[in-house]
Every structure is written in structure tokens, then in C-alpha cells.
Specification:
The chain is of the alpha+beta class. The protein contains 3 helices and 6 strands, in the order ααββαββββ. Strands 2-1-6-5-4-3 form a 6-stranded mixed beta sheet.
């Protein structure tokens, strides 16, 4: 009888632990999706301060042309870009987030629409962003974008 009660307690505790873990992962997924959307809006608006808080100081950004940028280079390019082009829309078409402890991987496709050099453009890109929970907040430590050509 005691063995049965102990087994029942262990099973119940395991179920509660798994449920708590699922709830926690769900909250992280929601947070990362919100941060991705905030990143898109900050980029569109040329909001350097917001981008600075979202991106880790050691972030590695791999652009759709294969070039690599540091955080300082990226923020500098946002300042330059906002002077030479007008981003009218940056929005995710699809996104999924996978959580691994204090690390989250976000993947998806986003569409960027705007005017550059007097010419309209629409671009679709697939992205992979890596986030870590650091010093009490989620920050992006790596980003890669690849054009979707089909």
C-alpha cells in the first residue's frame, strides 16, 4: 500500500513538474516573439536605443549578403539606412521559437517593404536568431538572414 502511494506521489509530482516546465517555456516563447516584433519595429523606426537594449554587446549579425557585423556596425548602419531609405513595413510572416534552458532559437520568415534610392522594394528573408537569458533579461546574441528567392 505504501509503495503504491509513493508511486502515485512521484507520478503526480512528475506531471506537475512537466506542466510547470511547459508553462515556463510557453512564457519564454511569448517573450521572444514579442522581442522579435519589437526588433522589427525598432529597425523600421530607426530606434537605436531600443535596438541597443534588445541586442547583446557581443552579438554576431550575418546579413543576407553574407557580410558579418558587430553590434556597433549594425547600429551605425541603421543610422545610415534611416537617412537613405524609408522602411515602410517590417513584419514576420511566420515564426517559431524553441527553448533550451536559458537559450532560445527563433526561426521564421519576415517581409520588408520600403523605398531605397527612390525605388520601391519588397524583400522576404528567412531568419535564425539566438537568444540567451543574461543579467535578468533576454538578449539576442546571433542573427542570420537569408533571402527567400522563390
Amino acid at each position: 500500500m505504501r509503495l503504491g502511494a509513493c508511486l502515485l506521489i512521484v507520478v503526480c509530482m512528475t506531471v506537475l513538474f512537466v506542466r510547470a516546465q511547459d508553462d515556463s517555456e510557453s512564457a519564454v516563447r511569448s517573450k521572444i516573439i514579442a522581442l522579435e516584433k519589437a526588433w522589427n519595429q525598432a529597425y523600421k523606426a530607426g530606434d537605436i536605443r531600443a535596438l541597443d537594449s534588445i541586442l547583446d554587446n557581443e552579438i554576431v549579425l550575418i546579413n543576407d549578403d553574407g557580410s558579418v557585423q558587430s553590434k556597433a556596425e549594425f547600429l551605425g548602419s541603421v543610422k545610415t539606412t534611416s537617412n537613405n531609405s524609408q522602411e515602410q513595413q517590417v513584419s514576420p510572416e511566420s515564426m517559431s521559437v524553441h527553448v533550451f534552458g536559458n537559450t532560445a532559437i527563433s526561426t521564421g520568415v519576415f517581409r520588408a517593404k520600403g523605398v531605397e534610392g527612390g525605388k520601391s522594394y519588397v524583400r522576404r528573408e528567412r531568419f535564425v536568431d539566438t537568444w540567451i537569458y543574461k543579467s535578468g533579461k533576454w538578449v539576442c546574441i546571433a542573427s542570420n538572414a537569408t533571402p527567400v528567392l522563390h
